[in-house]
Amino acid sequence: MAEDGARPVVTMAQGDPSAFPSIAEYLSRDLQYELSADDVFLTSGCAQAIEIVCSALARPGTNILLPRPGYRFYEARAVFSGMEARYFDLLPGKDWEVDTESVQALADKNTIAMVIVNPGNPCGNVYSYEHLAKVAETARKLGIFVIADEVYAHMTFGDKKFVPMGMFGSVAPVLTLGSISKRWFVPGWRLGWIVINDPNGVFQRTKVTDSLKSYYEISTDPSTFVQGAIPQLLENTKQEFFNKTIDILREAADMCWEKLKDINCITCPSKPKGSMFVMVKLDLSCLQDIKDDMDFCCRLAKEESVVILPGCAVGYKNWLRITIATAPSSFQDGLDRLKTFCLRYSKPNK
């Protein structure tokens, strides 16, 4: 119940009705068509959005195509829901673009969707308009739809601007997943969304929308109080706030790119352009007494108090994911410690 003066009011079961059109209007700014409040499903963060999508779409024998390297929560939810997870490759030599040939080789009559993450976690990539158009056309040919994880939308600081996958919803239907946790730095608010980008009404005809609604009705909802803050948050956050974040990330990305050049056992295939991460390759042949990426990261944490995610956690053995979302002074110190650690374990020159 909520207080409205002296009168108690019971809130609507689905939450604050003003949040839905606000999110629809906000996301429509980047599209060539208008979303409606009916296209929006609110969730308790993007993690619940993934859970709902996988649960609503799962059917016996179906499979879903996931990126490698990638956020493993998709696999966990897909398998839990009874789907098979199949992995297509991202290409490190091409700014981590989707290997569309790999997608076509993996897909069959039981494939329901493919997932892309843009801007990328864990790779720090940002996809161009042209590449997203290629992904959409691949999905159209295969008769599948696209789940676009855009939780890092607009967090770009390189030469590519963010383009939403929803731009190509008329080519292949798209479910966009997002949240306020990253761009507004409020992860504890736990508010995300699933948004239907489907001007041709494919999801309606195939009952995908009905499945989402059915599962949505038996799932928990984000806090009503947080929902009530959404219209103000989306409308009144000043651009200076976003610019400050981007400036910090850009400085960290530049620093990371330059400093990693001086560490001979680590190779960065492409400079990070978005999100908060970068994937780098670990060359074990340059090191002694290090078994693999997990061993490397455990020893680094113990000896230098620097935490890096081993690549095996995102499906890429003997790679590393470095987080760049930190103050420049702390980040520089961390990179210096990483270099010291690598020198300590470097094989002596013969």
TrEMBL record:
<dbReference type="GO" id="GO:0004838">
    <property type="term" value="F:L-tyrosine-2-oxoglutarate transaminase activity"/>
</dbReference>
<protein>
    <recommendedName>
        <fullName>Aminotransferase class I/classII large domain-containing protein</fullName>
    </recommendedName>
</protein>
<feature type="domain" description="Aminotransferase class I/classII large">
    <location>
        <begin position="14"/>
        <end position="327"/>
    </location>
</feature>
<dbReference type="InterPro" id="IPR015422">
    <property type="entry name" value="PyrdxlP-dep_Trfase_small"/>
</dbReference>
<dbReference type="InterPro" id="IPR015421">
    <property type="entry name" value="PyrdxlP-dep_Trfase_major"/>
</dbReference>
<dbReference type="InterPro" id="IPR004839">
    <property type="entry name" value="Aminotransferase_I/II_large"/>
</dbReference>
<dbReference type="InterPro" id="IPR005958">
    <property type="entry name" value="TyrNic_aminoTrfase"/>
</dbReference>
<dbReference type="GO" id="GO:0006572">
    <property type="term" value="P:L-tyrosine catabolic process"/>
</dbReference>
<dbReference type="Pfam" id="PF00155">
    <property type="entry name" value="Aminotran_1_2"/>
</dbReference>
<comment type="similarity">
    <text>Belongs to the class-I pyridoxal-phosphate-dependent aminotransferase family.</text>
</comment>
<dbReference type="GO" id="GO:0030170">
    <property type="term" value="F:pyridoxal phosphate binding"/>
</dbReference>
<dbReference type="InterPro" id="IPR015424">
    <property type="entry name" value="PyrdxlP-dep_Trfase"/>
</dbReference>
<keyword id="KW-0663">Pyridoxal phosphate</keyword>
